[in-house]
Specification:
The complex is a heterodimer of chains A (about 500) and B (about 240). With about 500 residues, chain A is of the alpha/beta class. Chain A contains 23 helices and 10 strands. Chain A has 2 domains: about 180 residues, no CATH class; about 230 residues, Rossmann fold (3-Layer(aba) Sandwich). Classes of the chains: A alpha/beta (about 500), B alpha/beta (about 240).
Chain lengths: ~500, ~240
């Protein structure tokens, strides 16, 4: 996989397919609620939360403003810790470095702990093409790999499969004989993957934060697969993005106070490891040789631009957990490994505007994401910024310009996203069927369209959304202006 | 080696250019930070911190025991003797090699009472055998260097006498923590590490409860790749 996938389908087709999948909707809805409620509870009881966010913003901005210095400092100190450094300005550079490491050791078997950076460069596909076996060890990633599917959420990527489907996948592919009880399936995975951890020659992992001062890399996990990858294979490869760097251990604490709370509504994950070099003298476990792939792959182009705030992102997924559009079109609708609000900013930031279809229009600019972002990224403003640039560069419809103005007025009046969060997919599908006069480029995203049809602006600003919808339903169905809504039957 | 192998400068130059820097600065001082968050551990007495540590640990499904130093061996023997819902009759233990365990009579108690089939005390001379033992062990026993009250977390560095496998492979992890080492938040732990200024161990693992997942329908399941049960023995 690279950043974009399913590119043979249009965004519209992907959204239509996602809207038709009731299970997927409900799964995403539950996830959003669980994480959102959990986060809300923890934040409410934490008096210093806002100051913690502000501090995180100043720390991350300081690093961005001095990114070259901190990249160098981290690289230098990591090397002093005994890490073998590889520098990858591009994703392809990263792939070459990894292939070199495998070749040098004649290695052909790797275990991997979930890493978005490796997804970004399509590492699995490349390794598999060269005959290297690579096993995903995160439960969800293993399910996806076994099923040949794609992640639908950046934190819990296999939400779109229910327990029956998952049990079936393992029955067919691995000879699983147990029930569909999640506990039994999980313990089955514990058993089958344990051998793989012990036998693999190479462990591949990501890095949540890299510490410049100490040359350390870190890993935040719950399942323990990250620790297994980090403990048993003798050779280890760590993917580190240049936007993962924090200055020192104190700032690492700030990030860790924010990350699990924002990501999964927990104070801390089961495991957080701070690694500072290969196994030390006399240590029996832990890797003998660790390679760090320090990768840019387009990130630096965000610095010193209107998008530089995005370099603060710590991939917690809080913006996905609150986003009403994400709820309805799910991770697969976007066609990027970085879906949801953060994905709408990051994806074009990394790959440009040419191949992303109308992705950045899959957003109602409600601003809930920005409000919940632990590092204060004005996500919806940046999405709007992308839209403006796209229009300016003539890459999309000029019709968008007046729409943005209307939307701004609209959102300044109605906190409709709150209502949108409680609407079910059937409602969204129903909305998909209606016609629309103005908002041609986002009309096919029902949840957006439903809120942005100009004829309803006045109504919406004076009534609650749900009440409005009750009345709206009673109206005769209008004839679609263009028959291009694929989302409903 | 690929011909086009990139150097650190190849990585840095575009970044500097983008930032409109003439080159990479020799030194950048950290600014005076404007914001410092209050933490809900602020102003708590040490006793209250220990209480919070135990309470937070219980919240993340850790069983806690608060004992006096002379009760260490008996407490752990009790945990091991009680068994787990999952284990069969045979049970073995892998334990960090630590003078404090020896002094507390832990090794003698475990072996003497005939509780286990095998006790492995981590010994780097035995190499891979330690890991093989940990793979089949029901219990792994370590001495944590500190605890964190805010999150019920223990701080577990790796060393030649305490391998990573001990707190990772067995079904049950028993961690001993001196109450005196319990700090309010991770910040104090980090400050201590920086104040010492020593080279960091290859790994410091912050552990907060059993390994867990919610990847299947968001149903929480404990015991994924790490321990299914975690016990903290807090020595006061």
């Amino acid at each position: 996989m690279s950043i974009l996938y399913d590119t043979d389908k249009s965004l519209k087709e992907r959204v239509a397919a996602s809207l038709d999948d009731d299970f997927k909707h409900n799964a995403i809805k539950t996830a959003q609620e669980v994480f959102y409620v959990g986060r809300g509870k923890l934040v409410a009881e934490m008096e210093g939360w806002e100051d913690l966010r502000r501090h995180a913003v100043e720390v991350r901005n300081h690093v961005t403003e001095n990114l070259d210095y901190y990249v160098k400092k981290f690289a230098t100190n990591a090397e002093a810790n005994g890490y073998i450094m590889h520098y990858a300005p591009s994703g392809d550079d990263a792939l070459w470095e990894v292939l070199d490491i495998f070749e040098e050791h004649g290695a052909s078997y790797a275990v991997k702990s979930k890493s978005m950076m490796t997804e970004e460069v399509g590492l699995n596909e490349v390794l598999e093409e060269t005959g290297i076996k690579i096993t995903e060890t995160d439960c969800a990633e293993n399910i996806l790999q076994t099923a040949g599917s794609k992640p639908s959420h950046i934190v819990v990527p296999a939400l779109h499969f229910d327990r029956e489907a998952i049990a079936d996948i393992y029955r067919k592919k691995r000879g699983y004989e147990g029930t569909t009880v999640p506990e039994e399936i999980t313990h089955y995975l514990r058993k089958i993957l344990r051998h793989e951890f012990m036998e693999a020659e190479v462990g591949i992992r990501g890095c949540n934060f890299a510490v410049a001062e100490t040359g350390s890399v870190t890993l935040v996990t719950n399942e323990g697969n990250g620790r297994m990858v980090d403990t048993f294979p003798k050779i280890q490869i760590v993917f580190v993005g240049i936007d993962r760097i924090v200055p020192d251990l104190e700032s690492l604490d700030t990030m860790m106070a924010l990350l699990p709370r924002s990501a999964v509504g927990a104070k801390m994950t089961a495991y957080f490891s701070l690694d500072s070099g290969p196994a030390g003298p006399g240590e029996i476990d832990g890797p003998e040789e660790v390679h760090i792939i320090l990768m840019d792959n387009g990130r630096h182009t965000l610095a010193n631009t209107e998008f530089e705030d995005m370099l603060r992102c710590m991939r917690c997924g809080a913006c996905l957990n609150i986003c009403p559009v994400y709820r309805h079109i799910t991770g697969h609708g976007y066609g990027s490994i970085y879906p949801g609000p953060m994905g709408l900013v990051l994806t074009p930031g990394l790959v440009g505007y040419d191949d992303i279809d109308n992705m950045v229009f899959a957003c109602s600019l409600c601003g809930a994401c920005s409000e919940h972002c632990p590092v204060g990224i004005p996500i919806h403003d940046l999405i709007r910024e992308h839209r403006i640039k796209i229009v300016e560069e003539g890459k999309n419809h000029a019709i968008e310009v007046p729409i943005f103005k209307a939307l701004e007025l609209f959102w300044s009046n109605v906190p409709v996203y709150k209502a949108g969060m409680v609407l079910g997919p059937p409602v969204m599908k129903a909305l998909a069927g209606g016609g629309d006069a103005l908002d041609a480029s986002s009309a096919w995203i029902p949840v957006v369209k439903g809120w942005t049809s100009t004829r309803d602006f006045d109504v919406l600003s004076t009534k609650r959304f749900t009440e409005w919808f009750k009345n709206h339903e009673k109206l005769p169905t209008e004839q679609p202006k263009q028959n291009e809504e694929g989302g409903e039957q | 080696m690929a011909l086009g192998k990139k150097t650190l400068d190849d990585l840095l130059n575009p970044i500097s250019k983008q930032l409109e820097h003439k080159g990479v600065a020799e030194n950048v001082e950290l600014p005076e930070w404007t914001f410092k968050a209050v933490r809900y551990t602020d102003g708590l007495s040490h006793d209250e911190l220990v209480d919070m540590f135990a309470a937070e640990a219980e919240k993340v499904k850790v069983k806690t025991y608060r004992i006096k130093a002379d009760g260490l061996a008996a407490c752990i023997a009790g945990i091991v003797g009680a068994g787990t819902p999952d284990d069969g009759e045979a049970c073995s233990v892998v334990c960090a090699s630590d003078e404090r365990f020896a002094a507390a009579g832990l090794y003698d108690t475990i072996e003497g009472e005939g509780l286990v089939n095998k006790l492995t005390i981590w010994d780097n001379e035995r190499g891979q055998e330690n890991i093989d033992d940990a793979l089949v062990a029901t219990y792994g026993i370590t001495y944590a260097t500190a605890g964190i009250a805010e999150t019920g977390t223990i701080v577990q560095p790796t060393s030649a006498t305490c391998g990573r496998a001990i707190s990772l492979l067995p079904l049950v992890h028993i961690a001993v923590i001196d109450a005196s080492t319990i700090k309010p938040t991770m910040l104090e732990i980090m400050e201590d590490i920086e104040a010492k200024g020593e080279k960091l161990p290859s790994q410091i693992c912050f552990i907060s409860g059993p390994s867990a997942t919610a990847d299947i329908e968001l149903v929480r399941v404990e015991g994924v790749h790490g321990p299914m049960y975690v016990n903290y023995v807090i020595v006061e």
